[in-house]
Amino acid sequence: MEALARSLDDLGTYFSTYGAATFATDEPVYDDICQMIAADADLLALLGAHDRDAQQPNLILNAVKYLLSAGAHHPLGAVYDGRRDPAVGDLFRDFVLTNSAAIDELLRSRRTQTNEVGRSALLTLGMAHIAKRVNAPLAWVDLGTSAGLNLMIDKFRTTWTTATASRSAGPADSAVQLRCEMLNGVLPEIDEFPEIPWRVGIDRAPLDVSRHQDRRWLEACVWPSRHDRAERLSAAISIAAESPPDVRPVDVADIAPVLAEAPQDAHLVVTSTWVWYYLADGVRSTAVEALAGAGRPVTLLSLEGQGVISSVPVPEMPQLLPEAASVLATSDFSEARDRRDEFLGWAHPHGQWADWGAIV
Ligand SMILES: C[S@@+](CC[C@H](N)C(=O)[O-])C[C@H]1O[C@@H](n2cnc3c(N)ncnc32)[C@H](O)[C@@H]1O
Hints:
Elements: H1 8-23, H2 28-38, H3 41-48, H4 57-69, H5 76-80, H6 88-98, H7 100-109, H8 120-134, E1 138-143, E2 157-161, E3 166-169, E4 177-182, E5 198-203, H9 212-220, H10 227-242, E6 247-249, H11 256-261, E7 267-273, H12 281-292, E8 298-304, E9 326-333, E10 339-347, E11 353-356
């Protein structure tokens, strides 16, 4: 994201467009709230006093959910618990204006750090695809890893389904059970996870699941009606608490020394699941320079919104897919600094389905 200030009109348009594209299908209450904010001078003024990163629409939604979960009493809590109320926008507005000091503080101190383990079902498809192509074990750096929960992909049970069949991988008794519908009707040939002997997550502000406040922030980043997501998050947190993933406080701009640590006898894969979107242009180009200059082949595996990694050749989206579909892609950097981008498929941003064209 760029650093230039936004006008309040632009901010309103941003909330309205983002709300419709992101929430209309999966969390309509959040779309209603975004549309209310887009047209409300007081809330736009509150947001307008913050920097661009803090104006990312999920952040104020997360901040409100965080304060409600801390015990703030307000009728909005009942709506988040499932009571229908057409006046949800008014309730949200009232909550924010009544708690504006606490909201301002969260907008200053927190960022959206949704750690969505459903994405592991898609990461596994991508990792298996890469492992098959390079025929070697993988060394893995996960960018913007949040609490590092997706580094634990092989501790989760993942089931890919079609209308008539299914295929699973991972421990059958795992507390995290993921399902991903393969819309093209083809099951991936994955019985075992690719071999990943070395893996590290980096984040500019990693969340630590042993800290109560960080667990609560992770929970606040889950949309209110998505109890399935909240349950699998809580299960993944329990697994991470027993055996914490290797997560380091490193900015993506400083990735080069982490890449240099990766063992040479494995193919280096760097993943970005809804992280590139949040990076400033300068950080993106520094990261690309580090990948291209790693002195070894590197594959960037990404799950991002359309156009976020602009060099990926994205075909026209099939009409039946929702507007919010994300793009799964690989970008291969050779030792000679050549780059080759490959579109792998469309996917639900949280891993519910994939419309996958590549071979696994
Ligand atoms: C939306 S979350 C996605 C988390 C995780 N990749 C997932 O898919 O569950 C974005 C993450 O990127 C991190 N992030 C944003 N900018 C970063 C930067 N410049 N360097 C490192 N991490 C960054 C944030 O702290 C946050 O944890």
